[in-house]
């Protein structure tokens, strides 16, 4: 939610800010703006809507001789997505400017107080309050003023501040919203909400923690505790992602690129975690002792959106292989219900970004109640990885498309390993079965790689028939029920078609009333242990003239008798139906992608959404 970028150094600043914003646009695209020093003045440019609008109005200043500036891309919370509400926001005379990601919860009280003291407001945002609040405390020292102002603030923030009185520094601070400093190669210092914005310039980064304030100059950086002002020694980390990973590399959309990257992402997540000799699973990074795993009584999975669907799949694996009760919760529900947790309950959070506010709040509570917390996360150094006791990284690489694709299948792979590992330690599966599971999942990336282009062609043909539908149902049973939910989420978020996912057996309890000859229903019917049951449900739909699209296992000729729209998936390696959720996700992703592009939707930046949801 909102992206911040900043630079101070020897390079020209505007192109750096624009490139950074491009790489952060996934965080919000309601408006964008930049500010830089020129001729001793702070020059602001802002535009409503996507970054392209800002690009058009700043064409002439790209080459301006300025070497200090800030940029922002907004996901609106307080105030409509207008130019007036676009960041950067200034104080009364625009001598001080700020960019902000987060929510100032007490902004109304602060605003009316500041108004009484004569401050003039020009936007409806909570952010503008910060600019005036800092102005109110400003004498000669920007850092001191920012510290004093932020002490009065309740809520979340990542901020970058510039002031005419000290044009040779950027002040940045964070509390519950991410912020990363990039250390240039002798050419300056960078600031960003997320690592992809820094990749063209540096891989040396410092992650700010909550209640830390940083002072950046062209040659150096310093981090202090916001409350005490005491200097903090920070660890410089080296990021292994390369700049190209955050580019489209010939694909029309990031989403399609990321769908095609799934074989590699899966491989990266699995690599080094399955012993090729004996098939044993090795997950030393989760730091759980055998004794702890053996005495564990329950596992609670917490996540949001697509990551929650991954958790739903994992419940099946964990309960079947480990024989341990598993609860799955949506972050925003978990944090507000009575939690029965203790040190015999392991909490596992799942998140691509590692910044999702509701999931973060959930694991904080879990820790307070004595539960150990492990996170499955894609973004190195993200808040969740620092809040959890340990992290099992998915190594999917940066995911830019707002619709999660490769992050989801990599989460499934990580969860598959995690469940097999617990079964190995608790000896709830024979070692031979664990070896087979490991070998099967290792075979999956190649199978996907070989089949993806052909699958896309076939899905495209189906999409052509159904792209103008107003509604869609997705059904599946067992392990594929969460995939039905995921298929429906993908379709609705990028094509704006109303879509619902159901457990196929649940249709008769209500949703079957929706079925008529105009309702397309995508059924996931692999050959697995609930196949016969699924087919009965599919027949019930057919009897009510629903338009069936079936995705089944190669060789299942029966499906052709039910409907002409059948897509066959290759059989999972070693014929392991346990792997079907990963395999059957791919056609659902491609269907959503093809339908959305046919409807002319902005696939990578669907309306009203942002990639990481850092607000409640
Ligand atoms: O970064 P996270 O995995 O925590 O994000 C959770 C959801 O916001 C995310 O999965 C969302 O549902 C995706 N846009 C779905 O494609």
What does this 3D model show about the protein?
The protein is of the alpha/beta class and 616 residues long. Among the domains are: 244 residues, Aminohydrolase, N-terminal nucleophile (Ntn) domain (Glutamine Phosphoribosylpyrophosphate, subunit 1, domain 1); 182 residues, Rossmann fold, CATH 3.40.50.10490. Helix content is 36%, strand content 23%. It has 18 helices and 24 strands. The strands form four sheets. Strands 3-2-4-1-10-9-11-14 form an eight-stranded antiparallel β-sheet, with helices on one face. A six-stranded antiparallel β-sheet has the order 5-6-7-8-12-13. The site of 5-amino-5-deoxy-1-O-phosphono-D-mannitol has 16 residues, from helix 9 and helix 15.
Write the layout of secondary structure elements.
Elements: E1 3-9, H1 13-24, E2 31-38, E3 41-48, H2 51-58, E4 68-74, E5 89-90, E6 96-104, H3 107-116, H4 127-137, H5 142-151, E7 155-163, E8 170-175, E9 180-183, E10 188-192, E11 204-207, E12 212-216, E13 221-225, E14 237-238, H6 254-260, H7 262-270, H8 290-295, E15 298-303, H9 305-322, E16 326-330, H10 331-334, E17 345-351, H11 357-368, E18 372-377, H12 383-387, E19 390-393, H13 406-426, H14 431-466, E20 471-476, H15 481-495, E21 498-503, E22 520-525, H16 531-543, E23 547-553, H17 558-562, E24 565-569, H18 580-598
Parallel strand pairs: 15-16, 15-17, 17-18, 18-19, 20-21, 20-22, 22-23, 23-24
Antiparallel strand pairs: 1-4, 1-10, 2-3, 2-4, 5-6, 6-7, 7-8, 8-12, 9-10, 9-11, 11-14, 12-13
This protein binds 5-amino-5-deoxy-1-O-phosphono-D-mannitol.
Largest sheet: 8 strands, antiparallel
- Unreliable parts: none
What is the radius of gyration computed over CA atoms, rounded to a whole number of angstroms? 25 Å
Fill in the CATH topology of the domain at 3-246: Glutamine Phosphoribosylpyrophosphate, subunit 1, domain 1
Principal-axes shape call: globular
Bound molecules: 5-amino-5-deoxy-1-O-phosphono-D-mannitol
Output mean pLDDT.
95
What oligomeric state do these chains adopt?
single chain
CATH class bucket of the domain at 3-246 = Alpha Beta
DSSP summary, beta strand count: 24
Q: What fraction, in percent, of the residue positions are helical?
A: 25-40%
CATH architecture of the domain at 3-246: 4-Layer Sandwich
Please give the order of strands in the largest beta sheet: 3-2-4-1-10-9-11-14
Number of helices: 18
The CATH homologous superfamily of the domain at 3-246:
Aminohydrolase, N-terminal nucleophile (Ntn) domain
